[in-house]
Amino acid sequence: MSRQPYVRPVSRTTWYMRHGRYRRYMLREVTCLLVAFYTGLMIWGLAALAGDSPVGWERFLAAQQNPVMIAVHASALIYYLVYMTFDWFKLAPKAMAVQVGERVLPDRAIVFGHYAAWVVLTLLVFWLTGVF
Amino acid sequence: MKMERIEADVVIVGAGGAGLRAAIAIAQSDPQLVIALISKVYPMRSHTCAAEGGAAGVKGADDSLELHFNDTVSGGDWLCDQDVVEYFVRQAPLELIQLEHWGCPWSRAEDGSVAVRSFGGMKKQRTWFAADKSGFHILHTLFQTSLQFPTIRRFDEFFALELLHKDGNCRGAVAMEMRSGRFFSFHAPAVILATGGAGQVFPFTTNGAIKTGDGMAMAYRAGVPLKDMEFVQYHPTGLPGTGILLTEACRGEGGILVNKNGYRYLQDYGMGPETPIGQPVFKTMELGPRDRLSQAFWHEQKKGNTVETPWGDCVLLDMRHLGEKKIDERLPLVRELATYYVGHDPVTDPVPVRPVVHFMMGGIDSNLNGETPMPGLFAIGETSCSGLHGANRLGSNSLTELLVSGKRTAQRAAGYAKETGRHAEDGAVTAQADAVVKGVRDLLLQTGDQSLAGVRRAMRTTMEEGAGIYRDEAGTRATCEKIAELRGRCGAIEVNDKSNVFNTDLHQTLELFNLLDVAETVAEASLQRRESRGAHQRLDHTERDDENFLKHSLAFRQDGGRPRIEWLDVTITRSQPGVRDYSGGKKE
Amino acid sequence: MSQRTLELEVLRYDPEQDSEPHFQQYSVPCREDWAILDALNYVKENLDTTLSYRWSCHMMVCGSCGMMINGEPVLTCKTFVRDLPDTVRVEPLANFPIERDLVVVLDDVMEKLQRAQLWIIRQDPPPVDHEFTQSRGALQKFKQYTMCINCMCCYAACPQYALDKEFIGPAVLALAHRYNRDSRDQGQSERLNTLADHDGVWQCSFVGACSEVCPKHVDPAAAIQQMKVDGAIEWWKQRLPGSKR
Question: What is the ipTM of this complex?
């Protein structure tokens, strides 16, 4: 007929360049590459531990002390610690609506709760692993 | 191109609160009937969404149907058909409960029951509300509820053009699919018009762009009279410039109106004595009826007591004493609107307001059952005039009206449709539909030097001048003549857009023709009602004249001339015309 | 009141004349209190009556006037000239096919609204001549999600919807959540069966753009994440011994 709706194309590969909020989203999502990397690392480490000889394990440990690896571990730690934690904790209240009677718990209460739990768990891990 | 033909049992034109309520009622009671629901906008855009304050229905133990009846009849200055009012007040609470069962998020009292608030002209608190977005929530509740009924066939963004009728019986309607320009003829034994009011006839209105009186005009052109068209309600508190509504609930919750001297001027107009700030007393001062409040503004303006603003003369609506908490809880939308559109936050500033056209008490002549003089044609909601509101509507009665009249008329229409049965295809009716199509095609070809916007602006200017809050013989007559002249100029409007696809130039031109049809009935009826009653006030006939004018006006279309006005007696059952006393001193 | 001239670049498209959309310029003298919608109305009344767009209430409640203003999905009646630069790009809502000029095809979302069972579902009959008792706290649980005006700005912002039209989308999911959290409703399981699905909540990767642009602060992103939790719990409940599937 005379109608001919026009579909504006969206690029599957560069859509996130269109707006700042999409670029920030991708910054968050790109951490999946780090997750994939650490998964590989854990598999290697487990395989090394489970192996017949201690050589594999020594090799694994040595690899972690390589300066490149240390740089990777350090930046991952900072990225997760500083960026991801803040970002995800900020989003946490969205998934949990806590209400007492008529009053809804303000977002910062939930965010604070997350940080508090994080600190407690970190201390627990430190204690269990003999850091102190 | 052959016109597409749709067969149905009931056609409903307009998918706002009334239309949706009617559709649901039929779908529930008669699931074998096919309903064609036509709307020129998606249903959730219907102007019901803009209503703010609430819907009235007797709730409290200290309230009664009798009181609601009396408030409504006296509010309507005894022009109400009392049989309609009796039925209405009885059904109101039932319909509001039904809406609650369907999920309407009514605001609640401490004990979890639905809360009620004070409203203008009401003796008791009986206005059910959903914060200050009552109309919005009612509309969305009805729309979402309607989605579960497959027998409601929706035709969204179809512009209804004309009714089809044969031998004085309604047979259906012709509509245009807006996005393709294709024409559809809808054939059904029963047609319900629910197209709303026509505030767009005036320059300052709370009404959205779509309120162009399409259904009123279609019925009028088909020979059905429009009743009580002179009664146009000005809402006292609209934002200047845009006309955006600030609900009566602002005053129900305790807001006050002051002039440039900080004086609560309403006490000078029969609505005193002054009540304590923040403690409104029913039916006096700021809780007086809308017609009296708007008229008080007019007088204050004449006296030079109004505040000058960048948008013209205003008075001030002061809600500061309500406090931020109460405003955010009960009037959050009002706060947003005042802040965005006039730059005044009601928590910290008084807000400039003025009366703006809000509601048409008049409309298609209909009775308690929504039946019009044309068998098979029904009308509900603001587009109808059943006699419920009389000469002045009380706030929060119209949202309830949508529900009560929607359901009642739907039952009648369904019964009528079953009794009459679908008509066979008829050459005369098809020819009628073809003529409508030809009319639109001719319109697209017409040339001339008149602009749509120019004619529309001229119409609005003359309506405000001669058919505004106060009318008089010379001014109103001049408006009648001007409207007639503007009708003539319509033949020289060129529709620049020739596309078939969503041609809003064409849609707005068709809407203008509907507006002019409505305008001529408003002007003529205003001229010929030589008394003052409710919202119709004459400077040259200042008193109510029950002897000659305790009647409804009926405006009939005359080919090539001004409308013919006839008169119809008001149905009085219990309440004889009395004095409308909104002063605080009296006892009821 | 002072005036300011805005240069509007408006995307035009008439399928009967154009093979693709193109921009058209208009110079508009604007009052300082105008919304961009007022500027469009000025264009239509005085410069070019062929410009087509949807609008009605001009008070942020009907949802008709959603468009892209300088790349951002907004209600044009709520976007004020005082907050805009001198050049304004006006385009139809993103992620929808263009019907004509600034009018988009909304069929997809209308169909999804239908599919999501957005009405009160009851197993037991409601109380007989009075309302359900619903405390203020219970109303608070879902009230925010009732505010959706169906303006579809969230769909225009959502990159998941941009790339995959099967995604049910923010507004519809938020409305479903509104019913799930309404104490009067008994249809949560039924709704979740449809919506806690790969085209439903699990297609959402929590970009959060929808909530950022929502003019009524409905926060559909929150609704969807909460529905993910509800959906997961529901999935497990249905697998407990003795449950009705």
Answer: 0.97
